[in-house]
Amino acid sequence: MPETFESALHARVEAMLDACTRCGKCVEVCPVTGPGGVNAAPRTVIDGVIDILRLGEGHEAARKWANACVLSGACIKACDYGVNPRFLLSMARVRMARAKDDVGQQRRNGVDGFRKVAREVNHISHLQLDDALLQRLGQGGKPPPNPPPLAGEERSKNPPPLAGEGREGAPDFVFYTGCNVLKTPHMALLALDIMDALGISYGVMGGPSHCCGIVQMRTGDVATSGRMAENTLDKLSHSKTGQVLSWCPSCHVQFTETTLPTIEKTRGAKPFEMTPFTMFLRKNLDRLRPLFREPVPMRIALHRHPGIHGVVEAAEDILRAVPGVELVDLHQPAVGLMANYLRALPGFRRELYHKELMAAEAAGVDALVAVYHADHRELCAHERDWPFRIMNMYEIVGASMGLHYDDHFKRLKIMQDADAILADCRDLVRTHGLDVETTRLAIQAMLDEQPLPLRGAS
What we know:
alpha/beta
């Protein structure tokens, strides 16, 4: 009988648990044990995590550590035995979710979470883009009346063609947006323009219809997560180079640490390799540098998250290559995979943001610049109250290359009023046939994503 996604995933977990020496180094280097209230000895903590994974139990310190994980990745580098503690903590959270709810509830939670993501991505993106730009990002002009259905039991045998595939058959690369960058589409559009300027052949995939399966995995619904991920994975496999360029760090970790190694076990080979877009550009910096034609005279500070090793360093190298840019180190902690992963520790997240904003003001920077879309969503409205801009790094790169898209997301979020945003976007609401009340819900979710309240907010 062929191995299933679930059985292969379980076998990978067991192999890592067998390799773990329970030395506790992963716990020692974790930057959030303190904020997460994990005060047991490191060996005791890792013993408890192993108990969760093998017995479904585990003590309080182990559960706290698993739930406090923000995917910084320091634990991976600390292990001398090839174990990925971050992956094991993810699987421990899955095991705890499965222990909490029965199979039916797990599936309902996954469906609800997926529909929420789909609703917000579809509506927020359609409040900013016309049909042509939506289609360029691999999205249809008008959203479906309901979110796309969950992947079926079987993988698609005839995946749809990729955007841009018609020029030379299969593109050299697939650019995988993930879902949530479509809320801040100016970033993804700039990435496409940069690849065009480099003469790179690419196809675009992303959005809720090409989900990585992480929402279902978090609820404990491993079977549905695996089916969705495999469905997307088969579509991503259509490039000449066997390379996928990822934008979203969450999708990247889900694929590279959970899905691709598991599929390699079931099929005998990985269908593609995945590289973060920023690291791909760093590898091509010699080709990119001549395209930096306009000076960008700005003092900027980089908002950093180290969860994918090498991305922060790649971003710094790219920004330093832009003429006129002065990169300022704010000497603030770099924690987590992406801003929204700090939701596990809300007080800690607010403290980090506040200290960084104050440090940026004290340093007199012109802009606080982020790499990822979630960072921008949580920080951008603070531009209203502080004497510097909140930007994405590719706005800086684009400015030197003569590329620009308006940041409508930031403009709308700074309004801080759902009715005012609806009024501002009424033409696009009408053009795309959006339901007003559903759109209002998506806008309110956008406004609620404000971990550190704005100055003067009630």
